[in-house]
Amino acid sequence: MRTAALTAAALVAFASNSLLCRMALGPGAIDAASFATIRFVAGACCLALITALTRTGAPRLQGSWLSAIVLFMYAIPFSYAYGLLTTGTGALILFGTVQVTMMLAALASGERPQGRQWVGLVLAVAGLVYLVLPGLTAPSPLGAVLMAVAGVAWGLYSLLGRGAPDPLAQNASNFVRTIPLTLVVSVATWRFSHLETRGVVLAAISGAVTSGLGYVAWYAALRQLTATRASLVQLLVPVLAAAGGILVLSETLSVRLILSAAIVIGGIALALGANERGAP
């Protein structure tokens, strides 16, 4: 029950991140670099405060620069992509790419592929390709590429976090290390900076609540989830994000998005189902 609750909380947080980012960047309430920087400053402050209140002795950095760099490679493209994509489309590209990344990593680690796995992987990739094919309802090519980069990075961050002995301390450390990296981007793009109160508040909520606490919940859940199950449950995020975009932002649910989502989710479920049955 504890793992299920942590997983559900993390998935809602992930979907909320997409929604909050789109709410801030869609109408131009803040620029992408500032959103990312404020997001991680707020997240680091929140996690550092919780760590200070729940730990005795001097705080100790437990993350790694590798994890921080991977987190940075997720955060910046994610922010810029949501200035160009709708909530549901962005989440589908993001988590579709996450699943493909984690599946390929599992195969590279020595898992023996089955026929259904290969079919599922090809279907998932085909679904993403169909979504971004040129057409009247195709998403922004640049936005799609940026979100795909973010998806690869998030998949790697999830893989690096499996088995974390202290999810709170590890994420707090990773957030602190990520701040100077995002600040470099903010300084480099200061001429394009734009801050409104609404955008700052949304970025802070995204950092402190749906990122900071959400990532801690996810790392804690990963300790009890197999790589296969961790990949599979994330398929719910695009559905939650798309629903939020429709309800909160009145975004349109296109036929292309519905068909692409069905192909991607069906393909990955097929591959993961085969892997689960073939696991010892």
* Content of β-strand: under 5%
The average pLDDT score comes to 85
Tell me roughly what share of residues is in helical segments.
Answer: over 70%
User: Which residues sit in consecutive blocks of at least 5 with pLDDT less than 50?
Assistant: none
Q: What is the end-to-end distance?
A: 24 Å
- The structural class is mainly alpha
Given the structure, what is the number of helices? Answer: 11
- Number of E strands: 0
* CA-atom Rg in angstroms: 18 Å
**Sheet with the most strands, sense and barrel status:** none
Categorize the overall geometry. globular
**N to C succession of SSEs:** HHHHHHHHHHH
Element layout with pairings:
Layout: H1 2-25, H2 32-54, H3 65-81, H4 87-108, H5 115-132, H6 141-161, H7 167-188, H8 197-222, H9 227-233, H10 236-249, H11 255-278
Helix pairs in contact: 1-4, 1-8, 1-10, 2-3, 2-7, 2-8, 3-6, 3-7, 4-5, 4-6, 4-9, 4-10, 4-11, 5-11, 7-8, 9-11
Describe the structure.
- By secondary structure, this protein is an all-alpha fold.
- It contains eleven helices and no strands.
- The longest helix is centred in the last third of the chain and has 26 residues, at 197-222.
- The two termini are 24 Å apart.
- The model has no long low-confidence stretch (mean pLDDT 85).
